Amino acid sequence: MLKDVKREIGWAGRTALRRVRALARSRAAVRRRFEPYFADEPVDLDALRDYKIEYFPASGPHPWLDTSNAETRIVARATSGEISTEQARQCRRWAETGAIVLERFFDAEKLDAIWEVYENAVRDGLVALQPEQPAAGDRLPSRSLDPHLSVPALRALLHDEGLKEWMRLLLGREPIPFQTLVSHKGSEQREHSDAVHMTTYPLGYLTAAWIAFEDIHPDCGPIVYYPGSHRLPYLSSLALGISSRDFRRRGYATYEGRYEPAIQRSIAENRLEQAVFLPKKGDVLLWHGNLIHAGSPRRDLSLSRRAVVLHYFARGAVCYHDLSGTLTPMDRLT
């Protein structure tokens, strides 16, 4: 019976369950890590029976680039010299689409050195890869979650000051680096926004950086995203009938059955158009936490898609996992 349950919820579900148990042992430490809060309406985290969007007040402040007067604020900051012309251009792009591209942001040699260290860590057993059953003909390794915890080169990348400067600008607050994903190949993950996996109170204070470690070919399963989707209402798990208890019991099976179809309906109803990210090595795609994105189908399984994804949330925001109703684990914050 236990084996059947483990097989049904999969690797991601088992990982989430382990984190739920870890959080139960360290809630006080978790709460302290988020202080001081900057929400207009402070909350007593101890009084919440669960951490779901609906259980928090509809409080601001909103991220400055999510506000209706974002353009006025961009102009004011550019006119005063607080931000450069290029920063102003990218801020406008962010406000409009929810994503920006930083071309040739990282040197190719630096990325090669980081990747070599990562490969060695995988070979030496310091990094555990996600279990999977690859398709016939797929010889590329699976991805890993949070390898920065055991690979200093990736931890340094997560804390790169150049990236954090952009996160400060986009969030309007100090960023906290807290998660890494490393992949050799396209994920083929269906459309979603990060907000249901990494939710913040107040809403909107989450960003991601997708770093291309090689030139990306159209047939390798590149990242796709839906410009402007970050402005849509946040899709919560509770509104879809996914309780924390249900998630703990069934893992991501309930997410696939209810959340993913809801995202597809939203794309259709809002007539969202897809953009494909085909970067050169060293390019970085930054996206808003509520932006809908996906891994497109891999048309050629022999092609790699080496990349690192980093996530950040704003200091003073509460960060939690809306699906499981738990606060962000402390072991990610290094």
- Low-confidence region ranges: 1-9
Proportion of residues in extended strands: 15-25%
CATH structural class of the largest domain: Mainly Beta
The CATH topology of the largest domain comes to: Jelly Rolls
Structural shape: globular
How far is it from the N-terminal to the C-terminal residue, by CA? 37 Å
Name the helicity range: 25-40%
Strand order in the sheet with the most strands: 1-8-5-10-3-2
CATH architectural category of the largest domain: Sandwich
What summary fits the major beta sheet?
A: 6 strands, antiparallel
Oligomer: single chain
CATH homologous superfamily heading of the largest domain:
q2cbj1_9rhob like domain
Indicate how many domains the architecture comprises: 2
Number of strands: 12
Element order: H for helix, E for strand: HHHHEHEHHEEEEHHEEEEEE
Q: Please give the count of helices.
A: 9
Describe the structure.
The protein is of the alpha+beta class and 334 residues long. The protein has 2 domains: 2-64 and 98-332, q2cbj1_9rhob like domain (Jelly Rolls), CATH 2.60.120.620; 67-96, no CATH class. It has helices at 2-24, 27-34, 70-79, 85-97, 108-123, 152-158, 161-171, 244-250, 252-269; strands spanning 99-102, 144-145, 175-183, 199-201, 206-212, 223-225, 275-276, 284-288, 293-295, 307-314, 318-321, 326-327. It starts with a helix and ends in a 7-residue tail after the last strand.
